[in-house]
């Protein structure tokens, strides 16, 4: 069974689309598009606003937890498990 740190590492790798070692809002925007494609919700269609609200809330929570710097990027080392 994976540890919390291993699960966090896996999630970070999934979100870091350009593999630059950080996660930013653009990565979350791509997450929104990917999730929308999986569940059949396209931009501008019913459900899109709810989907974007959810991923935007995730992004804001991550920024608050990590104290993201002015660059708007959350570096891998900033995400720590308790």
Number of helices: 3
Oligomerization: single chain
Spatially, the strands of the biggest sheet line up as 1-2
Average per-residue pLDDT, rounded, comes to 84
Q: How far apart lie the N and C ends?
A: 17 Å
Strand content: 5-15%
* Helix content range: 55-70%
- Strand count: 2
Low-confidence spans: pLDDT under 50, at least 5 residues? none
Structure keywords:
82 residues, two-stranded antiparallel ribbon, 7% strand, mainly alpha, 2 strands, 56% helix
Report what the structure shows.
This protein is mainly alpha-helical. 56% of the residues lie in helices and 7% in strands. The chain contains three helices and two strands. The chain has a two-stranded antiparallel ribbon with strand order 1-2. α2 packs antiparallel against α3 (48-66). The two termini are 17 Å apart. The model has no long low-confidence stretch (mean pLDDT 84).
């Amino acid at each position: 069974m994976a540890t919390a740190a291993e699960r966090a590492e896996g999630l970070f790798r999934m979100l870091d689309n350009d593999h630059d070692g950080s996660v930013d809002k653009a990565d979350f925007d791509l997450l929104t598009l990917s999730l929308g494609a999986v569940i059949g919700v396209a931009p501008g269609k019913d459900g899109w606003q709810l989907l974007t609200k959810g991923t935007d809330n995730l992004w804001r929570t991550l920024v608050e937890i990590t104290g993201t710097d002015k660059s708007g990027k959350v570096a891998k080392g900033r995400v720590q498990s308790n």
